[in-house]
């Protein structure tokens, strides 16, 4: 499987962003590949199939979705006509602060982080499919971003960041208004494995039990029971254990303040972080650091 590198699309360290509009001819296959960056895909015209984590779904005009880094995917274009695809490639550091701010919006967390993960465990009934007026609005936003990227006037990097934030807020609102169940359930074991893997990767994000339960098509009680049976603890306990393990490493190998470490691993309240840490390790974070050889 071919892997696309950041250096293939981001020649300078200052702008980890690339956008293009690709016209794929009828019957063309884009072979399985992965990439180091995040990709936002919008289907402007045409239809085909998209393979993602081994699952294949129909795609068509108006569909918009995220592709996670290091995940294999491929396209298969229908014979009826070309497939016109807009690709926005975003390097891991380009929108770091902006993504952190947007993560306060629960629907953004679902669209940007959770749905791509669940797409590997579920056969989704649909991607985020935009209505006609929404498609027109999105095309206007993509045009502005493309012009900034192409012409690179003064301040273009900041302008692209600002317009991407506006675009993600728009898509988050569209996702918030999306009706109907989001997924068809697959095997519980595979699903819970995917949830656990997702938490390991995004433990610092403000992901709630209600969000994950809803996206899994379960009640909170049903999801909680299945997760505890699988992992031996609740989802919140599982996530907090990972956060505390990461905090332990930061305390050991860095000189970061406890408030900084607490925030870094996802705890908003330092007092709660201290309490959880002492409950797990039998001593406060400060006491643990003082007992390390380097301190």
UniProtKB/TrEMBL annotation:
Domain HTH araC/xylS-type stretches: 193-291
GO molecular function: DNA-binding transcription factor activity; sequence-specific DNA binding
Pfam families associated with the record: AraC_binding (PF02311), HTH_18 (PF12833)
Entry protein name: HTH araC/xylS-type domain-containing protein
Entry keywords, A to Z: DNA-binding, Transcription, Transcription regulation
InterPro entries reported in the protein's UniProt record: AraC-bd (IPR003313), Homeodomain-like_sf (IPR009057), HTH-like (IPR037923), HTH_AraC (IPR018060), HTH_AraC-typ_CS (IPR018062), RmlC-like_jellyroll (IPR014710), Tscrpt_reg_AraC-type_HTH (IPR020449)
Domain of life: Bacteria
């Amino acid at each position: 499987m071919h892997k696309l590198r950041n250096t293939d699309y981001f020649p300078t360290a200052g702008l980890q962003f690339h956008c293009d509009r690709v016209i794929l001819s009828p019957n063309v296959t884009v072979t399985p590949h992965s990439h180091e960056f995040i990709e936002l895909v919008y289907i402007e015209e045409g239809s085909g199939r998209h393979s993602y984590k081994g699952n294949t779904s129909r795609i068509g005009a108006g569909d918009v979705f995220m592709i996670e880094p290091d995940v294999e995917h491929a396209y298969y274009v229908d014979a009826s006509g070309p497939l016109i695809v807009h690709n926005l490639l975003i390097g891991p550091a380009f929108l770091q602060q902006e993504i952190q701010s947007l993560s306060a919006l629960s629907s953004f967390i679902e669209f940007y982080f959770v749905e791509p993960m669940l797409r590997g465990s579920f056969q989704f009934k649909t991607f985020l499919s935009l209505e006609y007026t929404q498609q027109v609005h999105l095309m206007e936003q993509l045009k502005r971003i493309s012009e900034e990227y192409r012409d690179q006037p003064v301040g273009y990097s900041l302008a692209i960041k600002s317009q991407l934030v506006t675009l993600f807020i728009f898509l988050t609102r569209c996702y918030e208004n999306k009706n109907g169940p989001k997924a068809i359930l697959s095997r519980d074991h595979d699903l819970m494995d995917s949830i656990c893997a997702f938490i390991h990767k995004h433990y610092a994000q403000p992901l709630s039990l209600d969000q994950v339960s809803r996206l899994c098509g379960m009640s909170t009680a049903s999801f909680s029971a299945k997760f505890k049976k699988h992992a031996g603890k609740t989802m919140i306990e599982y996530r907090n254990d990972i956060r505390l393990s990461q905090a332990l490493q930061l305390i050991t190998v860095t000189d970061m303040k406890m408030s900084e470490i607490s925030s870094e691993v996802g705890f908003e309240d330092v007092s709660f972080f201290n309490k959880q840490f002492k409950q797990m390790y039998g001593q406060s974070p400060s006491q643990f650091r003082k007992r390390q050889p380097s301190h």
